[in-house]
Amino acid sequence: MSTPDGGTRPAPTDSGPRPSTPTTPTPKKDDPAMAQRIDVKDLNIYYGDFLAVEGVTMTIEPRSVTAFIGPSGCGKSTFLRTLNRMHEVIPGASVHGSVEMEGVDLYGADIDPVAVRRQIGMVFQRPNPFPTMSIEENVLAGVRLLNKKISKSDAADLVEASLASANLWNEVKDRLQKPGAGLSGGQQQRLCIARAIAVKPQVLLMDEPCSALDPISTLAIEDLITELKKDYTIVIVTHNMQQAARVSDRTGFFNIAGTGSPGKLIEMDDTGTMFSTPKEKATEDYISGRFG
Amino acid sequence: MTTTAADTRAPSPAPSNGPDRPRPPRRRTRAADRGFNRAFRYLATSAGTLILIALAAVAGFLLWQSWPALTSSGSEIASKVSFFQGQSSLASYLGPLIFGTLLAAAVALAVATPLAIGIALFTSHYAPRRLASLLGWVIDLLAAIPSVVYGLWGALVLAPTIQPVWQWVSNVLGWIPLFKGPAADPARVLLTVSLVLAVMILPIITAVSREVFLQTPKLHEEAALALGATRWEMIRTAVLPFGRSGVVSAAMLGLGRALGETMAVVMILSPGLTYSFALLLAGKQQTIAANIALKYPEANSLGMSTLMATGLALFVITMVVNMASRWVVGRRKEFSGAN
């Protein structure tokens, strides 16, 4: 049902490169946290009349980590935000092209952006737990939004499971009723990850999740990303190339020709290939630090 | 000479002179800076102190002026003050006035606050920018209308017009003591007054709430949206909790105005001195400020003093209300988002 696109990606179904991808992409309909593949085709992203990102075509594999690298302002964060329709939250912003998740166009006329965001979670650059909520309420915030009547014991289980998945449970289990804003930056970011995965999304988008954190917290998050890719499709934007090399399976390099011109996806490949033998000279220059 | 001074001082730190001694030109700029700093500090401190002095002076003045009434017995005041007839003590005179004042202000606040929050949310999160600024401008304009105009409008236009509505309300909801009928005609009743007061305090509550809502961090709004919140859910999870303390402050500013409003009440309300919750009956309640304005022309010295005592009560009420609101705002400080 998913039409194959240009060929900048390896064939998705026979999953050659990575052993982590199961050979059957949509086997478990009963699993709520089922990771899904995303196909992007000829995506143009606008702020008003300004074309910010031009002609992106790519495939994001399920149960893997896809990293986007590139200089500031090249549109990688902007592109990330189009994957869960957060881009259009900005006044005047618009998107042309298609983003398909398992064959369903997320920008289709009958698709509710709210529903999209419930399936594709997001973690932001700066930790943003709700300041008026306790740690527990923060984790449950998304579930409560779904208007699910959730029993006390189920809620407690969900809080524990989500915080445990985010490697935060042991640190906060004795102070679940304390405000989330009282945690350290790294803990807050893991709380945000717990909040995002508590609603069992299919895809998790991370917009520079470690850029406001110290090296130890960064390491904790990176370990967590490696853990989470067993269950989720993860897309991460990072300024840190070592991080991309450490955590991701595939890497996309975005670049911009100059101020005012649109950002483009220059190259996308397996992370090992990208960092050893990139095809494009721009990629090589950027990765080796000879950018500009 | 300056260079030698600098040279000789360099090896000897001279701890008592402080670090800004060594280089003369630099010291000059620092000294000027410090002078301005100091002047500004004094200016700020004296401005802050002045407000406290003014407040203390008002309290002292009220206490001093009302002292004769506070120390006289009820029968003594009743014998000398015409409007005090039939009262046994100052407390029995003051009680219904305090009650009426609080009732009128509370009803006004109950009407105005939800409306103001709604308008503020509409202008901050729903309306297109041009409509939002137009609406904000119109709301601000409401604050510029003199209260005597509100009073005239309330007495001459609103009271006759709204009477059938009040009649209907008393027919339908008459079993609630608040809406006991039959509604007075013309509707010179407390509910009409509260409605006018609500319109008068609407601008301040709206303006402050709007500013607070606009300051909600984008991060928190996006956090809610990214979790799959609709716009209303985003407002409920991110905007309203963040703006809560600001809205309470705004409501208290409005309440302060409603408590002290004089002319509109004088012109609209048919007064009475009872502890009645009946908002639709005439001649039941009166507010302190309106009572002072009405009784002031005919008051002799002890009468003046009695009115001053009611003024003192209003002063205390306003202060208590403000302190209570501070307490409400500060109660969950660690959840406020300020950290």
Automatic annotation (TrEMBL), chain A:
One of its GO terms (molecular function) is ATP binding. Residues 38-281 form the ABC transporter domain. Residues 1-33 are annotated as: Disordered. Keywords: ATP-binding, Nucleotide-binding, Translocase, Transport. InterPro entries: AAA+_ATPase (IPR003593), ABC_transporter-like_ATP-bd (IPR003439), ABC_transporter-like_CS (IPR017871), P-loop_NTPase (IPR027417), PstB-like (IPR005670). It comes from the Bacteria. Pfam families: ABC_tran. Gene3D superfamilies: P-loop containing nucleotide triphosphate hydrolases (3.40.50.300). This is Phosphate import ATP-binding protein PstB. It comes from Luteimicrobium album. The gene is pstB.
From TrEMBL, chain B:
The gene is pstC. This is Phosphate transport system permease protein. Gene3D superfamilies: MetI-like. Belongs to the binding-protein-dependent transport system permease family. CysTW subfamily. The chain crosses the membrane at residues 40-64, 97-122, 134-159, 187-208, 262-282, 302-324. Residues 1-31 are annotated as: Disordered. It is found in: Cell membrane. Residues 98-325 form the ABC transmembrane type-1 domain. Part of the binding-protein-dependent transport system for phosphate; probably responsible for the translocation of the substrate across the membrane. InterPro entries: MetI-like (IPR000515), MetI-like_sf (IPR035906), Phosphate_PstC (IPR011864), Phosphate_Transport_Permease (IPR051124). Keywords: Cell membrane, Membrane, Phosphate transport, Transmembrane, Transmembrane helix, Transport. It is a multi-pass membrane protein.
